[in-house]
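User: I'm writing a short methods note and want a consistent example. For Glycosyltransferase, I'll paste the sequence; you return only the structure tokens, no commentary, since I'll be parsing the reply automatically.
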Amino acid sequence: MADLSGVLIAIPALNEASHIRGCITSLAGAARDGARLVVADGGSTDGTLAELARLAEEVPGLEVLHNPARLQSAGINAVVAQKAGPEHHTLVRCDAHAVYPPGFAARVAAALAARDSAALAVPMDARDTSGNGFAAAAAWIVDTPLGSGGAAHRGGRRSGYVEHGHHAGIGLAWFRRIGGYDPAFSHNEDAEFDVRLAQAGGRIWLDAAIRLDYAMRPTAAALARQYWQYGRGRAATLMKHRLRPRLRQLLPVANLLACGAALAAAPIWRWALLWPGAYGLALTGASLLCAVRLRRPAGLWAGVALAVMHVCWAAGFLAHLGKRTRA
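Assistant:
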């Protein structure tokens, strides 16, 4: 049995009644091994708190901390500020939308110590947990270069040092040294944290052998909201630190602007439709490929999911840029 008495596990949550049980039960072993397991709830109204009360009877040591700021960034900061004791050296960040393999926290803590890195990132494997055809197609396409732009933590298979990845473990000394997450960030707080971590000399190791299953959003509307916020958050990070966007971040923005300009110009120049037409063909191809790979017609939703991710991420990005420019 691993000794996890030096590990603090933080789970920010808000209205996660349908997912919180799977997350907590997958981490129960870590609590039994001595880790401090804390959920920072942002004021859930969907039954999450009632479910957590039931789980507290099943998982010894499970704690719930009220997070009045509601945001994930502020919630994790509060867990560290209020629940980290002198014995704790490692923060394991977990997501209420995820299910973790046995021994996850122990492996994260061990890998972080072995590399002497400031933080440890792990790949996420998107999964359909709703039995929804749309979610199944979206889960497949998001882990491809078309869906994630080749981000190493989206279904990646190679370990190595990265500039950014899905946060799994952070040395508490490093977390405190750079001031934790920026509590003003509702999304992309992990990437913003990584910028400051790198500026302070910290390195991030991506361990492809430690993985987690992430529950994909079940509907196009939910996916659209998620990616709108992702785009806004990425723009906020770039503007805060005066960084240039990467090519994979520019492509969806350029595509949205090009498609919009083409549709506007089409009444006077029909050849302008070549670009949106080519994009539509690419989406159709993605749908057909997904249907073949999944061996079910639901795969045809892949093109729709891909368009939602591209368009909403780009729109959120541009909306934040426009808002800051006007301000």
